[in-house]
Design a protein that fits this description.
It is a single chain. With about 475 residues, the protein is of the alpha/beta class. The protein is built from 15 helices and 10 strands. The protein has helices at about 20-45, 60-130, 135-150, 155-165, 170-190, 190-205, 205-215, 215-225, 230-250, 270-280, 320-325, 335-345, 360-375, 440-450, 455-470, and strands at about 5, 10, 255-260, 285-290, 295-305, 355-360, 375-385, 400-405, 425, 470-484. Strands 3-10-4-5-6-7-8-9 form an 8-stranded mixed β-sheet, sandwiched between helices. Helix 1 (about 20-45) runs antiparallel to helix 2 and helix 9 runs antiparallel to helix 11 (about 320-325). The longest helix has about 70 residues, at about 60-130. It is elongated and about 115 Å long.
Length: about 475
């Protein structure tokens, strides 16, 4: 049989996991081609009917039956060749479209970057014209003021009182702002153009910063081309996380204690079931261990989403950890992703043990980075409503990434370079969330996943079911994440 070399290997050979629309179509055509090939083999393995018939058997009928078998084998062979041609053409057409799409996206990013640079430069010019030392003073005064307000809430109350005495109702302003977002945020987020624009704006933040600092645009573009868009964004995120650390205090996120929990009675395969476990588990991370029929051990890891904005003693899943996770590069993990990897090692997971990862929101970003780090043998990953576009997960890992239309959180990772996670955007089941983060509701994701009907989801489900069949529970542990 002839083969065709493409993404993920040659047709007719074992292919790496490809969750793109092109990959899904090629995989389905490959299944059909293999079915036709099996039909050809079955028809050609039938006994030769060109023999002398037994008494009472019609020679004409016997020859007609043999001719029919030959005709059907030839038709199956022709169908097989047609499917192989169609598979090849589908791959070529799909990849051509994706390459063209990437070129258009690159042009849009270039234009947006130039606009962002111009805006940053305009802000810098205006600030320096108004007060030459305003920028320098602001870099010192603003962080110190924020630090004082965080350390002494009574100062904020005093500031509110002084604003009221001066005729400015600061509390009313904050209330009106909150009410505005509560009224209009859900409508804005439901518009795909808005979320796409937000992702593009985040991706262009490096050009805006270059303009603000007065760095020549060609130099900024040269640095970005050498390092990569996602890497530059990651460095900015790490810088912002470091600034947040100076303002709020607290060290890195750590897996600080654990306790035994009952593992599910069998390995989890259904996306909706995994989401229920994530929402209902007592700790931020749950790790279940299973004995497989072949004598190996399999682990499944479930990670919750952001629980607090400011760092606290109760949870390390804070907003600063989101910034730290964005700064992940290869095996270098910095935030809650590093704590998840730490928890996995403490649970006894070795580099050669099979692992399935499940995460929601920040948890999705954390487990995506763990899978991309290469520290563990991650075979399957379910990522729900998370900023995961920049994670370059190896093709051997089957990834199902799901996001609701109108969910702003996945857009916070910016526009990926093209090598990151491919996310399937689907309509929410609705009925639970409200406000700007309405479509990020975990309960809505449970309902949506319950009715999920998508080829990528079917292919992922088939793969994880085959990999986990026959697993028997051994133990489970709940791990607490805290910033210390």
């Amino acid at each position: 049989m002839s083969g065709f070399s493409g993404a993920g290997g040659a047709f007719g050979a074992a292919q790496a996991w490809d969750p793109t629309a092109t990959g899904a179509a090629v995989a389905r055509l490959g299944e059909a081609r293999e079915g036709a090939n099996r039909a050809v083999l079955a028809l050609r393995s039938a006994p030769d009917l060109a023999v002398a018939p037994a008494p009472g058997v019609s020679l004409t009928g016997l020859r007609a039956c043999g001719a029919e078998l030959d005709a059907r084998a030839a038709a199956a062979q022709a169908l097989q060749l047609e499917l192989e041609d169609l598979q090849r053409d589908t791959w070529l057409a799909g990849r051509s479209y994706e390459w063209a799409s990437d070129a258009v996206r690159g042009l849009i990013e270039q234009v947006a970057g130039s606009v962002a640079y111009a805006l940053g430069a305009a802000v810098r010019t205006a600030a320096l014209a108004a007060a030459p030392w305003a920028v320098a003073i602001g870099l010192v005064v603003v962080p110190l003021a924020a630090k004082l307000l965080l350390m002494h809430p009574e100062l904020l109350a005093s500031l509110t009182q002084r604003a009221a005495a001066a005729g400015t109702n600061l509390g009313r302003f904050l209330e009106d702002t909150s009410a505005f977002w509560e009224r209009t945020g859900e409508v804005l987020m439901a518009n795909p153009a808005f979320t796409a624009a937000l992702a593009l704006a985040i991706e262009s933040s490096d050009e805006a910063l270059a303009g603000l600092l007065g760095i020549p645009l060609p130099l900024a573009n040269s640095v970005e081309s050498r390092i990569g868009d996602d890497e530059v964004l990651g460095l900015l995120a790490l810088s912002a996380a470091g600034g947040a650390g100076l303002l709020s205090g607290g060290g890195r996120v750590q897996a600080v204690f654990s306790r035994p929990v009952a593992p599910p009675s069998e390995p989890v395969t259904e996306p909706a079931q995994a989401m229920r476990i994530i929402l209902e588990q007592d700790e931020q991370v749950t790790i279940a261990e299973y004995a497989m029929p072949d004598g190996s051990t399999r682990y499944q890891v479930f990670v919750r989403g952001t629980e607090t904005v400011a760092p606290s003693g109760s949870s390390g899943l804070d907003m600063r950890a989101n910034l730290e996770n964005t700064g992940a590069a290869g095996s270098q993990l910095h935030g809650s992703d590093a704590a998840v990897a730490e928890a996995m090692r403490e649970a006894g997971i070795g580099p050669g043990d099979a692992v399935d990862l499940f995460g929601f929101s920040q948890g999705a970003g954390a487990v995506a980075n763990v899978a991309a780090s290469g520290q563990f043998r991650v075979e399957n990953a379910l990522l729900v409503g998370g900023p995961v576009g920049g994670a370059e997960i190896p093709p051997q890992t089957a990834v199902l990434s799901i996001a609701h239309e109108g969910d702003i959180v996945p857009a916070l990772d910016g526009w990926a370079d093209g090598e990151g996670v491919q996310t399937t955007v689907i309509e929410s089941a609705g009925g639970h969330g409200s406000g700007p983060l309405a479509r990020h509701s975990g309960e809505e994701y449970v309902d949506t996943l319950d009715r999920l009907d998508d080829f990528a989801g079917d292919a992922w489900l088939a793969r994880i079911e085959a990999a986990t069949a026959g697993g028997e529970p051994i133990s489970g542990v709940g791990v607490h994440l805290r910033r210390r």
